[in-house]
Backbone:
């Protein structure tokens, strides 16, 4: 593997992994748009990731040739064995396992180690080189149990029955995970959604992730009328609370579900009244745990606090290399802004 302006390139196999621009052949780890870009010639991914790409990018832009590779299956291209192993990040997310001439490299994509009832769990794969993300690669980031954060949310709903609870989430992954966690915690009432979240929730349902009773937030009643959905839970893209759309809700408690809610200044700057530390990435301890489990003598580090993680790895006798890949962001942890125009649903 080598780093190019088009991203990580497997030279003997002649393909890229999560390239930031269109290429002839790409292997895609998951459907977030900082990893799944449009207009590749050929795309190899899990069936779920391909379905998500078609939903988000359009059938004609999700790869002119689309090849699904399910976990447990393997193919060979130019002598390079390719497998996809669950990464635990979002539905369909996968690590890319490449075997060539007796050596193995694993590209993690984004991953988390916590249980997620909306997708398959991460599976560590021993390898010679492990390519890891580093979104939360600082010791301050220690994620609490997501179930604990959901319990805090439900307690707030109990304490403020005259207010709606509006939670900012990312449309792919965080939204559906939070819904499933709420269902497991016993919330069997309808969960109300901003229109920008409806399509991917419907796709999750089609792909077998059952989410229960989901309803679009009703249109605003007469101007000046009191808000709706007091005592209810509403999910929306971040930014919806700053648009006229929010007038539909009864004195909303503004919440946000993100690993970044560990940083109080960030929560305060965003006007978040109830920060919920629910992350779809590995925290500091889990990054180091994963490095130990994959037993790789060399670890390459992508977006995030690359230098901090490389330093910690060196103290453990592991060679670290910061890749400084372009085109990687916090998209899946910084929820999408609400559409400028109200969705009408």
Residues:
């Amino acid at each position: 593997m080598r780093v190019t302006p088009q991203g990580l390139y497997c030279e003997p196999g002649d393909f890229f992994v999560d390239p930031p621009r269109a290429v002839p052949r790409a292997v895609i780890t998951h459907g977030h748009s900082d990893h799944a870009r449009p207009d590749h010639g050929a795309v190899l991914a899990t069936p779920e990731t391909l379905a998500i790409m078609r939903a988000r990018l359009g059938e004609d832009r999700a790869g002119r040739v689309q090849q699904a590779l399910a976990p447990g299956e393997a193919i060979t291209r130019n002598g390079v064995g390719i497998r996809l192993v669950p990464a635990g990040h979002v539905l369909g997310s996968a690590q890319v396992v490449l075997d060539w001439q007796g050596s193995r490299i694993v590209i993690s994509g984004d991953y988390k180690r916590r249980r997620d009832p909306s997708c398959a769990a991460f599976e560590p794969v021993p390898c010679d080189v492990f390519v890891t993300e580093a979104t939360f690669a600082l010791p301050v980031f220690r994620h609490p149990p997501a179930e604990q954060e959901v319990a805090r949310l439900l307690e707030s709903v109990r304490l403020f029955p005259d207010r709606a609870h509006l939670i900012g989430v990312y449309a792919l992954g965080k939204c559906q995970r939070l819904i499933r966690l709420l269902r497991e915690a016993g919330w069997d009432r309808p969960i109300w959604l901003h229109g920008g979240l409806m399509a991917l929730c419907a796709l999750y349902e089609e792909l077998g992730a059952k989410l229960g009773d989901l309803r679009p937030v009703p249109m605003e009643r007469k101007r000046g009328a009191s808000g709706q959905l007091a005592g209810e839970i509403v999910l929306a893209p971040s930014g919806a609370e700053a648009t006229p759309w929010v007038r539909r809700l009864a004195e909303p408690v503004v919440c946000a579900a993100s690993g970044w809610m560990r940083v109080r200044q960030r929560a305060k700057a965003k006007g978040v009244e109830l920060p919920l530390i629910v992350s779809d990435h590995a925290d500091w301890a889990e990054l180091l745990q994963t490095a130990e489990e994959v037993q790789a003598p060399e670890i390459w580090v992508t977006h995030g606090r690359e230098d901090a993680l490389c330093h910690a790895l060196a103290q453990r006798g592991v060679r670290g290399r910061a890749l400084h890949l372009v085109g990687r962001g916090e998209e899946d942890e910084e929820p999408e802004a609400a559409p400028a125009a109200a969705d009408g649903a």
Notes: The longest helix spans residues 146-159. Residues 2-140+280-322 form a domain with the Metallo-beta-lactamase; Chain A fold (CATH 3.60.15.10). The first strand starts at residue 2 and ends at 4. DSSP finds seven helices and 19 strands in the chain.
